[in-house]
Amino acid sequence: MIERKATNITRHEGHVSRAIRETLLGQKGCTIWLTGLPSSGKSTTAFTLEHELVQQGHLAYVLDGDNIRFGLNRNLGFSPNDRAENIRRIGEVALLFADTGVIAITSFISPYREDRDLVRERHNDLGIPFIEVFVDTPLRVCEERDPKGLFKKAREGVIKDFTGIDAPYEKPVVPDLVLKTDHMTPEETAFQIVDFLQSQALLPGAVDRALA
């Protein structure tokens, strides 16, 4: 549990509720949390999903693991403690996005189950849907893709603490959704998530399946 160091603080409630913001946007705010090994297809799925949702008229935004480390989390490395703080921070940002009525899509390895569970707990406490999506791609396939050449460097010992090689990845026990990117196109995985959102009444019913 993260210690709260600030004292003499009081939570202030605004005059605009989440329900009002969601009515304004015509959607339910939520966080779609994509987790999986490096090169499993998380970012590709996330940005494809964002594109499809926006084409449908829904406000969605991707919070991507690499992108966040250029700014908000630029002071964090890849030690277990830094990874935990990385996920805690992005969990809070996603929570803020979802509270505004936006569909927040996160693409993070987030290798530790406890860290993901804490983010879910924070969402549950505020009554905001948290959808854990396990991008279940075999290590062999991830290594074959290896678009950044990071697996190769990890195997050679150039990169340390690399998830799947010399750092652990803890699979979700009961994810809300499982995607098999080794058997599906990015469009198919995106539509699978859209179908799930519709089944949970977070989006309106069936829509045209043509990506613009």
* Biggest β-sheet description: 5 strands, parallel
Q: What pattern of helices and strands is seen along the backbone?
A: HEHEHHEHEHHEH
Q: What is the radius of gyration?
A: 18 Å
Distance between the termini: 44 Å
Query: Which residues form runs of ≥5 with pLDDT under 50?
Result: 207-212
Portion of residues within helices: 40-55%
Number of beta strands: 5
Number of helices: 8
Q: Overall pLDDT, averaged? A: 90
**Strand share of the residues?**
5-15%
Structural class estimated from helices and strands: alpha/beta
- What is the 3D shape? globular
- The order of strands across the largest sheet is 2-3-1-4-5
Q: If you had to describe this structure to a student in words, what would you say it looks like?
A:
By secondary structure, the chain is α/β, with parallel strands linked by helices. The chain has 8 helices and 5 strands; from the N terminus they run αβαβααβαβααβα. It has helices spanning 18-25, 42-55, 65-68, 80-99, 113-125, 139-145, 150-155, 186-199, and strands at 30-35, 60-64, 103-107, 130-135, 177-179. A 5-stranded parallel beta sheet has the order 2-3-1-4-5, with helices on both faces. α4 packs parallel to α5. The longest helix has 20 residues, at 80-99. 35% of the residues are buried. Mean pLDDT is 90; it is low at 207-212.
